[in-house]
Amino acid sequence: MKVHSITPRIYAIHADIRSDDLFEGIWPIPYGVSLNSYLVKGEKIALIDLVRDWVGAPGELAGQLAAARTSLSDIDYLILNHLEPDHTGWLGEFLEINKKAIILATAKGIELVNNFYFEHERVRAVKNGETLDLGAGQVLQFFETPNVHWPETMMTWALDGGVLFSCDGFGSFGALGDRVFDDEFSAEEHEFFEAESLRYYANIVASFGLFVKRAVDKLSNLQIKVVAPSHGIIWREHPEMIIERYLRYADYLEGSREKEIAIVWGSMYGNTENGLQHVIEGIEEEQVPYTIHRVPNDNVSWVLADAYKSEGIVIAMPTYEYKMFPPMAYVLDIFERKHVWYRKALRIGSFGWVGGAKKEYEAKIAQLKWDSLEPVEWAGAPDEETAELLRERGRELARLVKGA
Ligand code: FEO
C-alpha cells in the first residue's frame, strides 16, 4: 500500500469510502468520501484521528501505517480532534491492539470518549495552546475550535512543516483515489471538489458559520503551509484557497450570498410545474442564474447546497390535504435547521378545491426570516392572466436578487 508524505516525518493516510450508506445517516455520498488520518513520527509516534470500521477503513489504516514502517501497536499518542464516530468508531478495536497509546482530546472530547467508548483510563485532556513534544523536532500544538462542528472539536498544529490538522473544518465529500494533494488534481477535478465541499459544508457545517470564522481568527497568527483536513483534499500548494472558500461559505449565513436563485419545486399533476415555467421565463429575462431541484426526486443534500449559496429562492408546490406538499415541508424543515435564513423568496402553487399551504408556510418562513414577495396561488391549471403574473413575479424576484 502507498502512503503519502507531507514532510519527511508526517504522513497522510486515507481510506476512500465508497458506499450506499448515508453519511451521518442522512447525506448520500455517491462519489465517496475519504477518511483522513495523519501520522507524525518523532521519537514518540502520534496518530491524528482514527476511522470507523467502514468499508475496510481499518485495513487501509494498518496497511498505510506499514508503508510508513509503523504498526498500530507503535502509536504512543492517539490525538482525537473530534469525536464523531466516523473518526473514532474503531477506537475500541484500536485499544485492544495497542496497549500503550494515550488518547489526547479536549476535556469535552474526553467526556465523549467516556460516553461513546467507556474508556476512562488511557485518556488525557489537553488545553488550548498546549504543546506536545514528540522529539526529533516534532512539536504539536492544540487549538480548541469549538463547534466546527461539534463542541469538543480542536485542531492540531505541527510546528515543523506548518501543517494544520483541521479535522472536519476545510473538509469535503468525494473520494480521493491515489492522489491526495491539491497540486495533483486538474482544474476540472477541482471544480468537482468545490461542488462537493459546498455540499459538505451546507450539509455538515452550515449551522456553525460563526464558529468557522472564530476558528480562522484564532489561527490567523499561524504560518499555515498545509491544511490537512479529515475529509478530502490536502492543501499544500494553495492552503489559502480552502480557507477562503470556507470563509465565503460562512458569509452565506449572514449575507454576501451568490446573486443566484435556487428553485425548489414539487408537482402532483403538472399544474404547479406549468406555472413555474412562467416564473423561470421571468427570471431568464432578467438574466439571473438559477439552479433547479424537484422534490422529492432530488435529494435534499443537493437542494440544501444550492439554497445555501443563493440569495433568492422560489418555492413551487401544490397544496396537499390543506397543507404544504409534504416533501417540501421536509425541505423547509432542513432549511430551518441548517440556517438558510434571510433569503428573498417567492412561493407559488396550484390547488384543487381550496388553498391551505399559506398558513403553514408562513409559520415556517417566519422562522427562516425570509423576505417574501406576494405569493401566487391558483385553482387548477394556470390561465393566461396567472401566467403573466407568474412571469412578473419571476422578474421581480430576479431584480431583487440582482440588487442585493
Ligand atoms: Fe467527519 Fe464530524 O465527523
UniProtKB/TrEMBL annotation:
Any Pfam family matching the protein: ODP
Domain Flavodoxin-like span(s) in chain numbering: 261-404
Molecular function (Gene Ontology), one example: oxidoreductase activity
Family indicated by similarity: In the N-terminal section; belongs to the zinc metallo-hydrolase group 3 family.
Name of the featured protein: Beta-lactamase domain protein
Organism: uncultured spirochete
